[in-house]
Amino acid sequence: MTFFSLRFVKILLIHFNLILQQKITLVSSQTSQNINVLFINELDNDAASKAIDIVQTYLKKNSNYGLSLQIDKIEANKTDAKALLESICLKYADSIENNQPPHVIFDTTKSGVASETVKSFAQALGLPTVSASYGQEGDLRQWRDMEEIKQKYLLQVMPPADIIPEVVRSIVRKMNITNAAILYDETFVMDHKYKSLLQNIQTRHVITAVADGDSARADQIERLRNLDINNFFILGSLKTIGQVLESVKPAFFERNFAWHAITQNEGEVSSKRDNATIMFLKPVVYPQNRERLGQLRTTYNLNEEPQIMSVFYFDLALRTFLAVKEMLQSGAWPANMEYLGCDDFQGGNTPERNIDLRQAFIQVTEPTSYGDFELVTQPGKPFNGYSYSKFEMDINVVQIRGGTSVNSKSIGSWTAGLDSPLVVKDEEAMKNLTADTVYRIFTVVQAPFIMRDETAPKGYKGYCIDLIDEIANIVHFDYTIEEVEDGKFGNMDEKGEWNGIVKKLIDKKADIGLGSMSVMAEREIVIDFTVPYYDLVGITIMMQRPSTPSSLFKFLTVLETNVWLCILAAYFFTSFLMWVFDRWSPYSYQNNREKYKDDDEKREFNLKECLWFCMTSLTPQGGGEAPKNLSGRLVAATWWLFGFIIIASYTANLAAFLTVSRLDTPVESLDDLAKQYKILYAPLNGSSAMVYFERMANIEQMFYEIWKDLSLNDSLSPLERSKLAVWDYPVSDKYTKMWQAMQEAQLPATLDEAVARVRNSTTATGFAFLGDATDIRYLVMTNCDLQVVGEEFSRKPYAIAVQQGSHLKDQFNNAILTLLNKRQLEKLKEKWWKNDEAQAKCDKPEDQSDGISIENIGGVFIVIFVGIGMACITLVFEYWWYKYRKNPRIIDVAEATSTPPGKDVKLAEGIILGQTGKEYEKANAALRPRFNQYPQNFKPRF
């Protein structure tokens, strides 16, 4: 078949259709049903107004419907209920007077005063009504708890603009969002959604209208961010979405934020943003409805935006009119319906209607033009508030680069409904659109809780870092951490202004305050604390550990030098005196040898023996054989008595000397520190310890002023005055004096400065640091030259700080209690206190039960080595002296006479002659050395 033959067949078919349509129009015109409609619309709802006009035109052009409309329009004022009611009553009275009362009221008011006025009017006068108002069953207050007979002719179908916000609920559930800001423009009505939209979902949310102006929108987003919100939903036109995106700072498009744009329009989102990725949802027409929608757009010019709303009004109106026509033609509509005027209504005389408009409305088979109607057909379930227009929304990932959408990818869809889940095709892409829960943490570096570490994932390590990581694993969040500029946890000044971490939390610049932060009453007024994660910690004192100087010859320092010299002089003098007495005494051994020749011990007390005797007498070995003469024995006894006293005194003083230095602790408590003036002391400037002492001093001053005022009160009777005279000074000034001393000592600005002052302190200029016990314990643990003094006081627990009213408080409380039950906190303490790599390997501090260390008594071993060395040297000297200097040669006389005759015999020096023979054998055949023989002419001096 050729092209021309095909064209000829198509022309014949079109001509046949036109003839057939004319015949149908002719038949239907004979049975055309006229319907009177009271159309009530809001002033700015152009989509509904245009849709009604097109319905009227559509029915005229399609006479096969057999339906003609007589429409009375009323433009509703949104705020003036009285004027609106007067307009409705006036129009209604005119229709009755003209014998054209309305068969049905078609209500397209959205919400508020206008909607409530229309519904009150319809219910009071019993007029069948089909409404496209916003809201579910409980939101329609005037139609709430109606009788069953009224529910059959007072109908409401929720428009798409009222269903679209329900996608927020589905997104929140799917992505497990914990916070949300929902911004909307005039194209959405959200007044009735404030409570119901995210009801029974644990999500903190704010629903608010989009601000006007770029700066106002920027401030609005900033305020929402300060409420710990990082998930934003924009419900509005494409223009509104673009304006909001352009008003936001670039930082709000980082990974810890998520943006969701939801619109009724079918176009593409555009914005001047440089770099942004958002989730974009827009409605899409069902494939089976596209042809009909295209015809309405081209033939009837149904192009009012948003398209989905104008088509919805068209379908709803057409369906309503067809249902009324069906009832009129079938006889289900009362023939003589009674109409009550506004002036005749007295509150209880509403006409009874036996009209089942709901059933006729459900049974209409007219196809829709965009989406289907989801109407309640189950008996017993309310029709109003649960019937709506069903359609689909496409879920797209849109990347905006350089002000244009460079990439748009469909990742799923959502079927409109009151509790409809998302259908996701790309789960990974959906996860990438989720805002990472990233909290801002501010901290103060304080070992071992927070310490800098460039190799750590966040740049910090410590007890608190491990703790927050454990909590993050339970609560599921990420965080950024930075140090507060002034290095303070937070104190309030005289003006009532805060600093440090507390100020960051008050100004909403921080989500979490982390560190060794004490729970204080004044802080809890402006911020919140979690349950304590660390035990009660107080203030304590840190001082320099007294270093006892060790010396190998410390045993020599027991006695003063002049005492040692006197002992040495006594030694030499006694030895010399004993030698003199032995030399000159006629009863000594050397002067009376024959008398003592049979004694076993023959000891001659020459000078060498006297020195040896006096030395050994001081030892447990004893001096040996005493002198024979009585005078010498008296000298020896005197020396023994002297030695006993010296040895006993030395032993006692040595033990005392080694323990006195250990017992020298001038400060053992805060009271000791307050009573003395030699050691300076102070806490860190701006620390909680400083605040404690300052306030205690102020309290003492206030109490003193109160007592002084009472004491000087002349109005008191003598009896009352006597009751106040219990104390001379009823209030202690301990802290007042301490605070004054601290100010004079100048408070250190940093912990490093305080430690340096402690280390540089001397006996004359001592310094004690008062600070948190945990800080001081860690410093003592990692430094061998520091010590803790006294007990803790003003004890408070450590906890994590959050913003006042923050949801993190409850979440963190549960997490900390979980870790506590698992004993995880004990493991962290074990890690950072007992097993810390920074722990110093210090010698155990000496106490009274310890023995003498080698450092203090090692000199004795040196004495032994020196003595052994001297003995070795002496041995060498003795050997040399004996062999080469004083050892004589012993020869026989025969050997001496064997010299040839005629030659003079000259004997070598040191040679002694001897003879052999029987007469000399008694002398053991050898002559004694001459220096051991007494001369023949020796006579005693006495």
From TrEMBL:
Any GO MF annotation of the entry: ligand-gated monoatomic ion channel activity
Ionotropic glutamate receptor C-terminal domain: which residues?
A: 438-835
Q: What is this protein called?
A: Ionotropic glutamate receptor C-terminal domain-containing protein
What S-S linkages are listed for this chain? 89-342, 784-842
Q: Name one Pfam family in it.
A: Lig_chan
Predominant location of this chain?
membrane
Q: Which GO terms describe its cellular component?
A: plasma membrane
Site residues (Crucial to convey clamshell closure to channel opening), renumbered to this chain? 667
Transmembrane segments annotated in the record for this chain: 562-581, 637-660, 857-881
